[in-house]
Write a structure and sequence with these properties.
Blueprint lengths: L1 E6 L5 H18 L14 E2 L5 E5 L4 H10 L6 E6 L46 E4 L2 E3 L6 E6 L15 E5 L1
Antiparallel strand pairs: 1-3, 1-4, 2-3, 5-6, 6-7, 7-8
The chain binds zinc ion (2 copies).
Length: about 170
């Protein structure tokens, strides 16, 4: 079981990361926590609401609660258990939002996939149902679409050509 610590937004994205770093430091120094070897998620990430979070595993949740309280972090963070698998990382910055990679990264705003060309909904890559080959079905409008990687994949300056995945009407 993994534990996720989410920083309550302070209104300043850089300050949120500072809070996350301080909480991590105190937890690692003063309680028995470790990166879950089955679900390794290293570093601080941003969830779908752009809140900073990190994860670890521990057999001693009471110790975690005590450290958060003793070091003055209890009001700054939310603690919850997570069971869902670790999702795909943003190709651009490595951020992991949660089990599903959203169309646009909340950390660096990189666009992973274009909107559905039929209904114009923003649909994550994993939410399309594969029919066969590059043919998929949109979960919103149930139209058949084709998914392909953008070409060229990289621009002249070495950055990814956005979106990484292009959705076309089939
Ligand atoms: Zn990103
Ligand atoms: Zn659609």
């Amino acid at each position: 079981m993994r534990t996720r610590i989410t920083v309550r937004p302070t209104g300043d994205r850089t300050n949120d990361l500072r809070v996350a770093a301080n909480v991590r430091r105190d937890l690692w120094a003063h309680s028995p926590v470790e990166i879950d070897p089955d679900h390794p998620l290293h570093g601080t990430h941003r969830d779908e609401q752009e809140r900073a979070y990190f994860e670890f595993s521990t057999g001693y949740p009471d110790e975690v609660t005590r450290v958060l309280r003793d070091y003055g972090h209890a009001e700054r963070v939310e603690v919850r258990e997570v069971e869902e698998p670790v999702g795909l990382a943003c190709q651009n910055c490595g951020n992991v939002v949660g089990p599903v990679l959203p169309p646009v990264c909340p950390n660096c705003h990189f666009r992973d996939i274009s909107a559905c060309p039929v209904c114009h909904h923003e649909v994550p890559r994993q939410s399309y149902t594969r029919i066969g080959g590059d043919l998929f079905r949109c979960p919103q409008c149930h139209s058949q679409v084709r998914l392909r990687f953008n070409e060229p994949m990289f621009l002249g300056d070495g950055t990814y050509n956005q979106p990484l995945v292009v959705v076309e009407q089939a």
